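Format notes (please read before filing issues)

Several people have asked whether sequences and structure tokens are stored in separate files. They are not. Every record keeps both together, in the order shown below: the sequence lines, then the token lines. Line labels are part of the format and must not be stripped during preprocessing.
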Amino acid sequence: MEFTHLLRGLLGIVSILGIAWLFSTNRRAIPWRVVAVGMGLQFFAAVLILKVPFVRSGFDAVGTFFVQLLSFTDEGSRLVFGWLMGVPQGAVFAAQDGRSFATHAPIFAISILPSIIFFSALTTLLYRLGLLQVVVKAFAWVMSKTLRLSGPETLSTSANIFLGQTEAPLLIKPYLEKMTRSELLAVMVGGMATIAGGVMAVYVVLLGGDDQAERVRWATHLLTASIIAAPATLVISKMLLPQTEPVDQAMHLSKERPGENLIDAICLGTTDGLKLAVNVGGMLIVFTALVAMCNWCLSSGPGDWLGLNALIKDWTGGQFDSFSLQFVFGMVGAPIAWLLGVDSGNLLAAGRLLGEKTVLNEFYAYFSMAKMQASGQLVDERTRIIMTYALCGFSNIVSIGIQVGGLGAMAPGKRAELARLGWRALLGGSLACFLIACIAGMLF
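Then the structure lines:
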């Protein structure tokens, strides 16, 4: 069975690299050395973190500390929300549908969203102290020396391990106006293929529930995904848009620091985190409502008129009970899920998650996976691990606008170029996430 997984993973990797080659702007200029070394870095890091006992123990310790930080968030939440923090987890869902998810689901606004605020403030504080920059520069140095790429793009890509798609480029803000198209795409793909530390906390809670050991385990997987996504980003971006111009390989971090002092930095981080938390909550409300509206139209319209609802329910064994967006996503995403190594019995469920992540966002997809796991629709451990890696990135349609707006504000002269690269960045971010998911599928 393990040999089969290995072959499926290799087929998936070759297929994903083939797609990048197919959409390349200059196939003859693709730096195959960068591709080979970048893939080697991903495998080396993944095996080191996940399979070497003493390294795994170290990352588990980091994951444990990360989870401990979540408990500190709970203390702050209790002060604000009081007795609501003691409401049994999932009471809201129990009132709505009474399914098994009711015993596991947290009250999202109270138990999860505050973690975004706390982690945003903490990240800004570490940024102000200069500690985050030291770690980022260490990762960037390794990739710059092994891949022989420019300093600014490797710095931004390394920063994306910890920071979001518009925060990481702040470290190289003075260089954005001078960057080549290839470097700009690398920065954009880096933002699409990774997640920020603040939202990582949300996914830890969704995947691990109330079990501390489970939270640590999934925190380790998410940390691993963020780290190996960095070289994956550069592999895919350099295939899609090869570098043909000379570049600056020096690494100089921007000396800009958030806030006037530590207190001001914490306040700024809190404000940014609050905006992000409200944005996440708002998006979930709106997207869930829109999906429900579309599903009603599909099931009440062609689903009823053409008898598709009954056909789909019988064909999927009750996995989908009507003609819906989730079914459409499942059908479209199933071939990709197969390439990632997902077993045949879970292809529609995995494909649905891939579609939700790309068309809606990763928050919605992770939320769906938590509900599917709790309701018994997706309980296969290996599939959940593969999908955790595949969903671990901001590669969705909305992110194109976020990047064009955020990066365009930092480098107004590059705004038109950023807009033209938007769809290519989305493709690159998705392919990078698929690469690391293939690797996860090979190791488990």
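For reference, the curators noted about this record: The radius of gyration is 21 Å. The chain has one domain: 2-443.
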